[in-house]
């Protein structure tokens, strides 16, 4: 029985259909289809990868530009081609190799405008404490340039003769100076940086020949400002601390330069106002000095007397200032409502709208502005 069962099993297996794999021709056909699809999709994939690499590199160059700016302001130093990578790496806390090369192992270049001018000072520029720049910086432009494809750019860090050609190149375009380079404009990454807006002008005018006008920059030594026609006129980096001192050399005002500023030294004190230019006190064209002198003389003058001879209408300087403040406040409130024009054909001063408004809101304006003994401004 066992022998008969074995024979039946063998006969059954012989009748079953045989399994077979791909033939060589079929395998070649399948590989050909896959190759065609890969050839069609590969450029798209590569382009997407290049676009992602370009976006990443532009972001990295933006971070490098910001780091250069912040490191410049912190150290008061603008680096040259030999120090830019170290300055950037110091701010970003990165190895220098990560600054000079991008993730695709292509070089980054630091190009300097050939017209870069810092009042005759060459790079690297280090701002001295009290001494700034004699003139406004010009053409203080640099470029950080790299690529994400093909080959390294034919550039060298430092002053570049064709700087403006690269600076003015639109995005995704290829600069004319790189015409022989095998890559395209879409492979080039350019970061532009201008140091000129980082400098602010500081003008210090001394109109006081009797007292020393002194200051210092960033906790350096005291410096005197010459009297009259030679003001202190220098350009300093953003964030520079200016200390304006009393006649004894003690700091009275500390001012952080965030924009251009001007100060005038008069009557032994610094005034935070721009002057009309230095000049001798006797000059009739020096309106700033004349106004300041008149204001100081008025404030320091003796009080008006309050005797019967002048009608008992004398007043103190502080009263005049209070009246003037009330007047200006009232005038501002009125001016917001209507323009300060007299009514046509009205000759009576009391019928002019502004006078009527002042009379109602601030009392009789003539009490303050009278030309005779009845006015506060009158002085014997």
Word description of this protein:
By secondary structure, the protein is of the alpha+beta class. The chain folds into 3 domains: 48-194, no CATH class; 199-298, Immunoglobulin-like (Sandwich); 302-369, no CATH class. It has helices at 2-14, 24-75, 84-92, 96-100, 163-167, 287-300, 317-335, 353-362, 366-369; strands at residues 77-78, 109-112, 125-126, 141-147, 158-159, 188-194, 199-206, 214-217, 223-224, 232-237, 241-245, 251-256, 261-266, 269-271. Strands 5-2-4-6 form a 4-stranded mixed beta sheet. The chain has a 4-stranded mixed beta sheet with strand order 10-7-13-14, with no helix packed on it. Strand 11 and strand 12 (251-256) form a beta hairpin. Helix 2 (24-75) packs across helix 3 (84-92) and helix 7 (317-335) crosses helix 8. The chain is elongated and about 125 Å long. Mean pLDDT is 78; it is low at 274-285 and 368-380.
């Amino acid at each position: 029985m066992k022998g008969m069962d074995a024979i039946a099993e063998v006969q059954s297996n012989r009748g079953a259909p045989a399994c077979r794999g791909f033939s060589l021709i079929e395998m070649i056909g399948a590989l050909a289809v896959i190759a065609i699809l890969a050839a069609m999709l590969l450029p798209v994939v590569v382009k997407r990868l290049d676009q992602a690499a370009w976006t990443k590199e532009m972001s990295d160059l933006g971070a490098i530009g910001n780091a250069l700016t912040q490191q410049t302001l912190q150290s008061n130093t603008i680096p040259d081609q030999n120090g830019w990578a170290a300055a950037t790496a110091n701010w970003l806390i990165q190895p220098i190799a990560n600054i000079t090369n991008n993730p695709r192992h292509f070089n980054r270049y630091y190009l300097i405008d050939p017209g870069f001018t810092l009042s005759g000072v060459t790079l690297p520029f280090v701002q001295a404490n009290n001494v700034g720049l004699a003139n406004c910086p010009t053409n203080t432009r640099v470029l950080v340039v790299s690529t994400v494809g093909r080959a390294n750019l034919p550039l060298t860090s430092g002053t570049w003769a064709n700087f403006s050609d690269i600076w003015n190149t639109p995005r995704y375009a290829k600069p004319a100076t790189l015409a022989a380079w095998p890559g395209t404009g879409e492979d080039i990454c350019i970061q532009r940086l201008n140091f000129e807006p980082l400098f602010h002008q500081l003008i210090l005018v001394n109109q006081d020949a009797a007292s020393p006008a002194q200051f210092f920059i960033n906790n350096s030594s005291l410096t005197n400002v010459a009297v009259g026609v030679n003001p202190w006129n220098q350009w300093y980096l953003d964030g520079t601390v200016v200390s304006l001192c009393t006649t004894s050399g003690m700091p009275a005002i500390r001012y952080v330069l965030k924009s251009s500023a001007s100060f005038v030294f008069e009557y032994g004190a610094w005034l935070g106002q721009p002057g009309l230019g230095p000049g001798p006190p006797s000059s009739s064209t020096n309106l700033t000095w004349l106004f300041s002198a008149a204001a100081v003389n008025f404030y320091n003058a003796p009080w008006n007397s309050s005797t019967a001879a002048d009608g008992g209408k004398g007043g103190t300087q502080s009263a005049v200032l209070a009246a003037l403040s009330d007047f200006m406040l009232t005038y501002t409130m009125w001016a917001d409502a209507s323009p300060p024009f007299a009514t046509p054909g009205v000759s009576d001063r009391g019928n002019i709208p502004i006078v009527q408004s002042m009379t109602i809101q601030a009392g009789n304006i003539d009490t303050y502005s009278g030309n005779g003994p009845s006015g506060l401004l009158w002085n014997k």
